[in-house]
Write a structure and sequence with these properties.
It contains 13 helices and no strands. It has 294 residues and is an all-alpha fold.
Length: 294
Amino acid sequence: MAYLSGVGRELVKAAMDAPYLERDEERKLAVAWKERGDRASLHKLTAAHMRLVIAIAGRFRHYGLPAADLVQEGHVGLLEAAARFAPERDVRFSTYATWWIRASIQDYVLRNWSIVRGGTSSTQKALFFNLRRLRARLARDPHAGSGDAFQAIANAIGVSRSDVEMMNSRLAGSDVSLNAQLVEDDAPGSAERMDFLVDASPLPDEIAEETLDSNRRARWLKDALAVLTERELRIVRERRLSENLVTLETLGDRLGISKERVRQIENRALGKLRRALTSRMSDDFPAHGEPSSA
């Protein structure tokens, strides 16, 4: 197996030279580790199953990740299986450990195959690891050529067709650095992909300015509203500052006055607010000067 060249000769040799364990011996080692914490028994138990780790890691060699890392993650899963294995159950350790080894390697592949996190749900993980296989099987099936391959895969895994299309596009391409040059030359000042990204959000100084202005305007409005009478304040709030604005007629019925009288009070209150705001702005921004600290 060519992919083993990246694992390490000593590790592969040790795994292949480790003796197979009979069921009774395997159970004794598991009991010694679980009940007495015997590390020698743990080492012998896991060493005998490293060939299983290497075999499972080989199934994930097509994802472009280092073989040594795949085997290492598989070994982590093997140790997890040893920690959780129940010797009293009539199950071979290799059968139990296979799930943990594969799960550990799959998690490593999902975390490192791309900088974009994907496959967080069980169905998405199944789609990620089975898409290539199902696509190849459909390609070999002469009766599947006329159908919708994406829909067939979606039905087989239990996801939507759009999920299959999105995962297929992700698997078809690789991560590209935003600092990669569009033209492969080493000339200074060559354009990068990042140069063509448009950010419509405001600049940091604009955000800071808007925050300061919003706080200042809120303070001005609060001070200006203080000059209104109780009835004027109620009319302005319900006619101008409420999310659900009321009509002159409705507000007149609530106050026991005519809608024309409401309109007059509203106009008078708005005039008072305008004068108060103008005065407050003059205090904060004197002519030809800097904003005051008030």
